[in-house]
Write a structure and sequence with these properties.
The chain is of the alpha/beta class and about 625 residues long. The protein is built from 16 helices and 13 strands. It has two domains: about 220 residues, 3-Layer(aba) Sandwich (Rossmann fold); about 220 residues, no CATH class. The two termini are about 50 Å apart.
Length: about 625
C-alpha cells in the first residue's frame, strides 16, 4: 500500500499542475494575452431583477474611441459561459461583448415563476440598456445575438426597442432560432426589424427550429429545406409576401434601403445540430463575418483565425486535472490517522468467477443498460412535467437516475440470493456491508473531498475567471443559494443512483473477466454504465441524418419534448462512464464502494443544478 500512497502523491501533484496550466492558459486565451479585460458585472435591471454578465472590454475601447458592442445570450438551461466562442472572437476583434446570464440562469436572480413562458425572457434588452450607458460603447453600433431561447430574447429585445422608440439595436444575429416572420394578430408576413441588419445561423439538423409541415400535416424537422419555406423567403425579402418574393440563397448578404438606411438580411446554413453551434468553427465564422459586415470590426482579423477552441482544450485539461485530484486526494485521505479505518489492508483484487458467474455478470450489465434506455424518456418526461420543483430538467433526470439505482439494487439482491450466497460471495469481504461508524466517516470524507475539489473551481473563477468544462459538461462556480436548491430532492435522487452503481460495479462486477488485464473489466462496466448515452444518441442522430426526421421527435406528444431530453444525454457520455472509473480507482484502495458513490452523487448534483434554469415556485 505504500507504493499506492507514493503514486497518489505524484498524481495529486500532476493534477494540481494540470489545473494551474488550464487556468493560466485559458485566461490568457480569453483575454487575448492581456488585450481584453474581463469584468464580472452585476446590475439591477429596469424590471427590478438582478442580472450578471461577463463584460469583455478590448483595451482599444475608450471614451475617446468608443467601440461597437454586442450582447451575447445563451439558450434555455445554459449560462453565460456557453457564449465563450462568440465573446472571445468578437472581443479580440475590438467589439465590447456582454455575455449575459438570463434571469433564472447562472448567477442572475431568480426573477420568474414556474408558470412564466420561456419566450418572455427580457435579458437581451436589459443587456442592451446596460451597454448603452457605458461611455466607451458606440451607442449607434449595438448588436445582439442569442442561441435558441437567446434568439427569442433577441426578438423580444427588438420588440421592446420598437415600443420604446429608441432603436438602440442596430444589428441582430439569431443563432439556432427563428426570426419573427408573421404578425400574430393579422397573420400577415411582416418586417418587425425595420432598417436593422438581421441574420440567422440555421443548423441544418436543428432539433427545434426551422420546421415545416408536410402534406400529411406532420412536422418535419428537415432544416436543410429551410430556405424553401415561405418564412425564409419572406425574411430574405425583408418581410415581403413569399408568394411574390424572389428565391434567395444561403450565405449571401441581401440589401435593401428601408427608411433611408441600408439594411441587410442573410441566412447562414451550417451542417450541425442545435447544441453544437456553441462549439462550431463554421458557426463562429458566420458570427464574425456578420458583425464585421454590419457593425464594423475595429480590429479586423480573418474569421478563419480562431482561438476559442484552444481555450476549450485547456478547460478540458483542467477538467481532467480535477478528476485526477478527486481520486488521489481521496486516496491520500484514507492514509491519514483519522480515516485510515476506511483503507483496505491491501489493494483489492478482482474476484474469481466461474461460468455461471460470467453469465450473471453479462446479464446484469445488459439488463441494467436495457432498463435505463427503455425507461429514460418516459420517466424524464413525467419528471419534467412536475410543477412542484424549481428545476424541472434536473428533477426529470434525477427521477430516472433513482429508478436505475433501485433497479441495480434489485439486481444485486437477486444475484446474491440466487447465485452469490451459494457460491461463497461474502458481503462483508467485498465491502457491501459497513458499520454505522465507518459509514459516518465515509460521508464525512466524501464531503471533505467535494468541498476541497470545489475550492479549486472557485479559485479558478476568482483568480483566472475560468472553470473546468467540455462543451455542455461544466464544473463551475455558483451562487451559495443553489446549495440549498441542490439538497432536496435532487441530491437524494442522484445519490441513490451513484451509490447503488458504485456497489454494483465494484462489489458485484469487479471480477477476473478479462484475465490479468484489470482494465478490461473496468472499461466494460464503464461502457455499460454509459450505454444510454452511447447507444441512444447515435440512434437519434443517424436516423435524423438518414431520414430528415429524428427517431424520437416532438410529435411524440405523450413524451413531452423528446429531442430536448435526448440532448441531455450528451454530458452523460462523460459523466456516467467517468463516475464508474472514479469509483473503481477508489474502491481498489478502500474496499469501500460508498466513498466514490457519495462523491459522484454530490458532484453530479451540483454540476446539474448550477448549469440549468431555476424558477421560483
Amino acid at each position: 500500500m505504500e507504493n499506492v500512497k507514493k503514486k497518489a502523491k505524484l498524481f495529486l501533484c500532476c493534477s494540481i499542475v494540470l489545473m494551474l496550466i488550464s487556468m493560466v492558459i485559458a485566461n490568457a486565451l480569453q483575454t487575448s494575452g492581456g488585450g481584453v479585460i474581463i469584468k464580472e458585472l452585476t446590475w439591477e435591471t429596469d424590471q427590478g431583477v438582478t442580472m450578471t454578465a461577463n463584460l469583455f472590454v478590448p483595451k482599444s475601447a475608450t471614451v475617446e474611441n468608443p467601440a461597437p458592442a454586442i450582447v451575447a445570450s445563451h439558450g434555455l438551461y445554459n449560462n453565460k459561459e456557453m457564449q465563450d466562442a462568440n465573446a472571445i472572437e468578437l472581443a479580440r476583434r475590438g467589439f465590447v461583448v456582454a455575455a449575459i446570464d438570463q434571469p433564472n440562469h447562472g448567477d442572475s436572480e431568480l426573477g420568474g415563476t414556474n408558470g412564466a413562458p420561456v419566450t418572455s425572457n427580457p435579458g437581451v434588452y436589459q443587456g442592451v440598456l446596460m451597454l448603452s450607458r457605458i461611455p466607451y460603447v458606440d451607442v449607434t453600433r449595438i448588436g445582439v445575438t442569442g442561441h435558441s431561447m437567446g434568439g427569442g430574447s433577441c426578438n423580444n429585445a427588438v420588440a421592446m426597442d420598437n415600443a420604446n422608440g429608441t432603436n438602440l439595436i442596430a444589428s441582430v444575429l439569431l443563432n439556432s432560432a427563428d426570426a419573427t416572420y408573421i404578425n400574430r394578430e393579422t397573420g400577415e408576413y411582416v418586417n418587425i426589424y425595420g432598417s436593422r441588419d438581421v441574420g440567422i445561423v440555421a443548423c441544418k439538423y436543428d432539433e427545434f427550429f426551422h420546421t415545416m409541415t408536410n402534406e400529411n400535416n406532420e412536422i418535419v424537422y428537415a432544416a436543410p429545406y429551410f430556405l424553401e419555406r415561405d418564412t425564409a423567403k419572406s425574411f430574405l425579402n425583408f418581410g415581403a409576401d413569399p408568394q411574390s418574393a424572389e428565391t434567395r440563397v444561403e450565405d449571401t448578404l441581401y440589401r435593401e434601403t428601408i427608411d433611408g438606411k441600408d439594411a441587410v438580411r442573410v441566412i447562414y446554413q451550417v451542417d450541425i445540430i442545435h447544441p453544437w453551434s456553441h462549439f462550431s468553427y463554421r458557426s463562429t465564422v458566420a458570427t464574425i463575418d456578420y458583425f464585421n459586415e454590419t457593425l464594423g470590426a475595429p480590429n479586423p482579423i480573418a474569421s478563419s483565425n480562431q482561438i476559442w477552441f484552444l481555450k476549450e482544450v485547456f478547460n478540458f485539461v483542467g477538467l481532467i486535472g480535477l478528476v485526477m485530484f478527486i481520486i488521489n486526494f481521496t486516496i491520500l485521505l484514507v492514509f491519514t490517522p483519522f480515516f485510515e479505518t476506511l483503507r483496505a489492508k491491501a489493494v483489492v483484487q478482482p474476484a474469481p468467477v466461474d461460468r455461471q458467474g460470467k453469465l450473471w455478470f453479462w446479464c446484469s450489465l445488459a439488463a441494467g443498460a436495457l432498463f435505463a434506455m427503455i425507461t429514460y424518456l418516459p420517466i424524464v418526461s413525467n419528471g419534467v412535467a412536475a410543477s412542484f420543483v424549481p428545476q424541472k430538467p434536473t428533477f426529470g433526470v434525477g427521477l430516472w437516475a433513482m429508478a436505475c439505482g433501485l433497479f441495480a439494487v434489485l439486481s444485486m439482491v437477486v444475484s446474491y440470493i440466487v447465485y452469490g450466497k451459494k457460491n461463497g460471495f461474502s458481503l462483508a469481504e467485498r465491502g457491501v456491508t459497513i458499520s454505522l461508524a465507518k459509514l459516518g466517516k465515509t460521508a464525512l470524507l466524501a464531503v471533505i473531498v467535494v468541498c476541497v475539489a470545489y475550492s479549486c473551481v472557485f479559485f479558478a473563477d476568482y483568480f483566472f475567471q475560468t472553470d473546468f468544462r467540455f462543451w455542455v459538461l461544466a464544473i463551475k462556480s455558483f451562487e451559495p443559494g443553489l446549495i440549498a436548491t441542490s439538497l432536496f430532492p435532487y441530491m437524494v435522487l442522484f445519490l441513490i443512483y451513484y451509490v447503488a452503481s458504485s456497489v454494483a460495479n465494484n462489489c458485484f462486477n469487479y471480477n477476473q473477466i478479462g484475465g490479468k488485464r484489470n482494465w478490461v473489466n473496468t472499461l466494460t462496466v464503464s461502457l455499460f454504465a454509459g450505454a444510454p448515452a452511447i447507444i441512444m444518441l447515435p440512434m437519434q442522430y443517424v436516423t435524423y441524418a438518414a431520414t430528415n426526421q429524428m427517431l424520437w421527435h416532438r410529435t411524440l406528444t405523450s413524451l413531452g419534448n423528446p429531442p430536448m431530453y435526448v440532448l441531455w444525454l450528451f454530458p452523460m457520455l462523460l459523466i456516467l462512464p467517468g463516475a464508474a472509473l472514479i469509483s473503481r480507482a477508489i474502491y481498489k484502495v478502500t474496499n469501500n464502494p460508498y466513498i466514490a458513490g457519495i462523491i459522484s452523487g454530490i458532484i453530479v448534483t451540483l454540476l446539474s443544478c448550477t448549469n440549468t434554469q431555476t424558477l421560483l415556485l
